[in-house]
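Consider the tokenized backbone below.
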């Protein structure tokens, strides 16, 4: 995570080290000035080596303060840039892995998983980086303080440093306890995030079935579990500070007691060292807190790495063959089953020609929608093959194939914004005329009002919350028609429409006959009547293929 920012970290380290040296020098000089004032001396011995006037010492101390401030500000600016760079890079990496994985892997992910990765985990990483920056700054400042203290009085510094080292070793059991509790906390947080995402998507069902109270109780249970786990980890994490401070003061007193028994030591040597060590306690506390927080993030990093490994292993594989237009579609003995072993399609074979309107009908669960998903390359058959223009779909570049079809799903998925935004759907190559024509053909707005201003002004709300089911279906159909695809794949395109609107949509589709190949999944007789042929499925198998003339009769 930090490797690409090695030079930035080096610059931060250098700035913090110089700032620490400047602070240490200021503390030594200011201690000397204070001792000089109490003894009424006009000159001082700085660092036990240099004689200097008090006035000159004051100016020098001021210069070191300015240097500390300037270098510290530079380091903070670089640190904020480091945090931004790492978090943005991590989010881009997560996004790339997620959208670069197979559709099946995305479907297997719990509800709200991507949001939690991009928001929850990223925020925790940001907090850890801020702590890392603070810990790095503190560690280097502590090193600078110890270095200057060694220069002033090596004996006293070594005793105090040895005491702090023992303290660090003594605190290691607390850090281990934090790591163990962090795993339980991260797991409970993920469960809570998934529960929130799942329940929020079931709003209508929860209200209509009158189960608000049980849902609230379930959420309350998840909240309590997450809160309890977080409290235990936070308590253990926060104990680092008081335990460290109390123990450090005791060790400092012991060290000073040992040094004070040495009659050769003078106040002008012990004073600066004691002040430096006391100041170093604050920096030491930040370093230990970072180490503890790093342990606290163990569970989060394990889950993040596990998730990213999952998406990496399920990376979308695609062929190299390019597709231009649509001539034919062939299913040759295609069988597909879910991972749990449930067979959805068994030995399906059929052929679709260019310009044909082909219907798919049958009982619920017979595999009609799965056939569309297989054609799109969203799923791969277990046996058999799918040929596009006589080329195996597994050998075709999916990006190339996606440009040649449009899919209208049974449950339209819309984005917040205007009708224009939804019809265009991130495809900048679609013209204004195509958007208006698609909206008109899909009957999204009346003929008299279908122009760009109306479409842009028509805000649909979040995920189409301001639209009826029929409007959502028509807007989704307009999105599919806008790119003028050679192949249209429609999954129950008129399921939410009234009879009059259904007839008009059928008229639009019928007018596309010969120009566009259309595969329609539907139970509606009106829709099936416009099909050249209808394939019927039952029990996961194709049982018959009829022409439209048989359907009408």
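A designed sequence for it:
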């Amino acid at each position: 995570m930090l490797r690409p920012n090695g030079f930035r970290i080096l610059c931060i380290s250098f700035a913090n080290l110089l700032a620490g040296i400047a602070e240490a020098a200021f503390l030594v000089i200011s201690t000397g000035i204070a001792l000089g004032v109490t003894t009424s001396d006009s000159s001082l011995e700085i660092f036990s080596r240099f004689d200097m006037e008090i006035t000159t010492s004051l100016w020098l101390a001021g210069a070191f303060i300015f240097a500390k401030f300037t270098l510290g500000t530079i380091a903070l600016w670089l640190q904020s840039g480091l945090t931004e760079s790492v978090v943005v890079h991590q989010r881009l990496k997560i996004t790339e892995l997620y959208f670069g994985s197979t559709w099946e892997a995305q479907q297997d992910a719990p509800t709200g998983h991507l949001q939690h990765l991009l928001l929850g985990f990223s925020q925790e990483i940001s907090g850890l980086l801020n702590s890392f920056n603070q810990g790095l700054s503190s560690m280097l400042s502590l090193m600078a303080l110890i270095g200057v203290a060694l220069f002033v009085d090596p004996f006293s510094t070594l005793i105090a440093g040895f005491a702090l080292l023992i303290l660090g070793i003594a605190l290691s059991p607390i850090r281990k306890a934090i790591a163990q509790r962090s795993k339980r906390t991260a797991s409970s947080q993920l469960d809570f995030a998934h529960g929130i995402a799942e329940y929020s998507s079931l709003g209508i069902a929860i209200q209509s079935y009158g189960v608000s109270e049980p849902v609230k109780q379930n959420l309350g249970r998840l909240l309590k579990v997450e809160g309890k786990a977080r409290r235990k980890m936070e308590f253990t994490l926060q104990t680092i500070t008081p335990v460290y401070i109390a123990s450090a003061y005791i060790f400092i007193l012991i060290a000073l007691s040992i040094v004070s028994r040495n009659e050769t030591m003078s106040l002008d040597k012990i004073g600066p060292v004691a002040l430096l060590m006391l100041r170093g306690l604050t920096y030491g506390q930040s370093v230990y807190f970072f180490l503890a927080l790093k342990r606290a993030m163990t569970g989060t990093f394990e889950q993040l790495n596990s998730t990213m490994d999952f998406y990496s292993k399920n990376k979308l594989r695609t062929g190299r063959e390019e597709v231009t237009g649509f001539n034919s579609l062939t299913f040759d003995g295609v069988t597909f089953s879910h991972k749990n072993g449930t067979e959805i399609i068994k030995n399906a074979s059929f052929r679709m020609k260019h310009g044909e309107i082909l219907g798919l009908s049958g009982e619920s669960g017979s595999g009609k929608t799965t056939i569309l998903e297989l054609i799109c390359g969203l799923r791969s058959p277990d046996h058999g093959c799918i040929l596009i223009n006589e080329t195996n779909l597994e050998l075709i570049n999916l990006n190339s194939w996606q440009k040649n079809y449009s899919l209208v799903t049974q449950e339209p998925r819309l984005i917040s914004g205007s009708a224009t935004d939804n019809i265009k759907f991130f495809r900048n190559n679609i013209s204004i005329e195509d958007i208006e024509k698609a909206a008109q053909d899909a009957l999204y707005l009346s003929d008299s009002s279908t122009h760009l201003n109306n479409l842009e002004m028509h805000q649909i709300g979040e995920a189409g919350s301001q639209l009826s089911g029929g409007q959502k279906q028509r807007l989704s159909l307009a999105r599919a028609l806008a790119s003028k695809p050679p192949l249209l794949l429609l999954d129950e395109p008129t399921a939410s429409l009234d009879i009059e609107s259904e007839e008009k949509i059928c008229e639009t589709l019928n007018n596309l006959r010969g120009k566009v190949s259309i595969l329609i999944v539907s139970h509606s007789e009106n829709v099936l009547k416009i099909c050249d042929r209808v394939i019927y499925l039952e029990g996961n198998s194709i049982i018959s293929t009829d022409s439209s003339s048989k359907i009408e009769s």
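The mean pLDDT is 78.
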